[in-house]
Specification:
Blueprint (H helix, E strand, L loop, with lengths): L13 E6 L2 H11 L3 E4 L4 E6 L2 E7 L15 E4 L3 H10 L8 E5 L6 E8 L5 E8 L7
Parallel strand pairs: 1-4, 5-8
Antiparallel strand pairs: 2-3, 3-4, 6-7, 7-8
Length: about 140
Amino acid sequence: MPAGTGLRISTMNYVIIYVTNMAESIKFYRDTLGLKVKFDSPEWSELETGTTTLALHHTDAGKLPEKAENIPFMVFAVDDIYDAYDTLKKAGLDLSSPNQVCEDAEGKKVGVGSDFRDPDGNRLSIFAYMSPDKVRK
């Protein structure tokens, strides 16, 4: 087994996604998902997501990375998965039905998620841990 490097990474600072229409993407992340804009420009914009900054990087449509299902995607924590789902559904988003995706280490709570896409097809999800008896069937 290889020896450790001794390096300790403490937090994820940025997540960068590529977008083709900065104004449309800012509107989506700010107005639909409720993220606060820290900085915006036609080529680079930043939104607050707790300790991690979501950065939007402009690119031409023909240069978007492939949207394969196995590439990483962002998961946003919400307090109430069903309330968040209903709110985003009413805003016109096409979301998967909330479903159980995991359980916590103690087996006392389950994780429930719902997936959707941004205007450029970037895969996103909302997620919440909850008591198993609160999961809708």
